[in-house]
Design goal:
By secondary structure, this protein is an alpha/beta fold. It has twelve helices and twelve strands. The strands form two sheets. Strands 1, 5, 6, 7, 8, 9, 10, 11 and 12 form a nine-stranded mixed sheet that branches. A three-stranded antiparallel sheet has the order 2-4-3. α3 crosses α10 and α6 crosses α7.
Length: 380
């Protein structure tokens, strides 16, 4: 952990889409129940990268294990919320909007963008890296630049601005489908599409300004993180980045799939931070990884089914490394329908990120007061 920086704090959210398996990511290797529950889908004792006498990382996470040992990774245990619906769509919606009881329309980061830039002075305050806009970033009158491929910006000579705008609008319409139908909403979407295109034009400059000796792998997550590094290093004032990796929906062929996903993620994350470090630009960046839920305690022979309690990771020089919260009890009588029971509300984790890292008022962002785990050094 380094001294807090005076630069504006930046957050990079990596969404592990599909339900990442908590127990095979942070392996409770000293607990004999682990192998009892997972006769087929387990990480062998000799392959676990031991972090403590109780837990270790998946073997594909060696780059992250090194960062953990350097004190720059927080493992946040047992995160979730009560009465998990075990549905990808609904669960992700809850994580995006902080509305476990009702159908939310505003994303938690959309509300954060409003606080950071209330007058819309910078249309690239937030960048969504991928083919679609993540609901976490969506809020009325909040511009978000949606970037599918940074390298292609400015090269799409055969695509007219109208087509580009229609494509952007289509993405926003999908996110706002519950509200569509009224004139003001359509006007707003039109403005949002124009803001997004303005953002795309601004971001055009990032690749040409970028030079690095770090060679990212040819994987989807590496390309996204390289694009984020390019934008961050261009000093365009972007404070929130969002991307995803998937699918972690490992009902079958889990051992192979999970290994590939964590191998590509860990390598890309290490390269990303090495890249920023090389440019003296890592000290104000924190990365946050989450998934919509963990997976069942018992394997199904080839994989694992949808569960409840999960794990989050926070990575960066301002992270107070180590473990936060407790690994949920694996005793049979303590499970809920065969799942680990989350005992840390995800909004508590967001509260720490919003207040201690981003220097924002967390209450309107998460919709209430939540006790926060202290995994961040407070930024100046």
């Amino acid at each position: 952990m380094s001294e807090p920086t005076s630069k504006d704090p930046v957050i990079v959210v990596v969404q592990l889409s599909g339900g990442n398996d908590y127990m095979n990511t942070v392996v409770p290797h000293s607990n004999s129940l682990y192998r009892d529950y997972r006769p087929s889908v387990n990480i062998s004792e000799s392959d676990v990268i031991e972090l403590t006498s109780d837990i270790g990382f998946h073997p594909a996470m060696a780059p992250l294990a090194d960062m953990y040992k350097e004190g720059n990774v927080a493992v946040i245990h047992g995160v979730g919320y009560e009465n998990s619906p075990r549905s990808h769509f609904r669960s992700m919606d809850i994580w995006h909007t902080c509305e476990p009881e009702t159908l939310g329309t505003e994303g938690w980061l959309g509300r954060a963008i409003k606080q950071i830039d209330p007058n819309k002075e910078n249309v690239v305050t937030a960048v969504s890296m991928g083919p679609s806009l993540y609901r976490a970033l969506v809020a009325p009158d909040v511009p978000v630049a949606t970037v599918e491929n940074l390298d292609n910006y400015g090269l799409l000579t055969d695509i007219s601005p109208e087509q580009k705008r229609d494509r952007v609008l289509d993405r926003y319409k999908k996110m706002y489908s519950p509200m569509i139908g009224s004139g003001p909403v359509m006007e707003f979407l039109g403005q949002t599409g124009l803001d997004a295109m303005k953002g795309a034009d601004i971001l055009n400059v990032a690749p040409s300004m970028y030079s690095s000796t770090v060679e990212y792998a040819d994987t989807s997550i590496a390309k996204k993180l390289k694009g984020i590094a390019q934008i961050h290093l261009a000093n365009l004032g972007t404070r929130i980045f969002y991307c995803d990796l998937g699918s972690f929906d490992t009902h079958a062929d889990q051992l192979s799939t999970h290994n590939k996903l964590w191998s590509s993620a860990s390598t890309a994350i290490r390269d990303f931070f090495d890249d920023l470090e090389q440019h003296d630009a890592a000290d104000n960046v924190t990365m946050f990884l989450f998934s919509e839920f963990g997976r069942r305690v018992y394997d199904n022979g080839a994989g694992t089914d949808h569960g409840a309690g999960g794990v989050c990771l926070a990575i960066g020089k301002n992270v107070k490394g180590g473990e936060y919260g407790q690994y949920p009890s694996m005793k049979e009588g303590d499970l809920d329908q065969g799942d680990l029971v989350p005992d840390l509300d995800f909004r508590s984790v967001y509260t720490t990120l919003a207040e201690d890292w981003m220097r924002l008022d967390p209450v309107p962002i998460v919709g209430g007061n939540f006790e926060k785990p202290k995994f961040m050094a407070t930024s100046n």
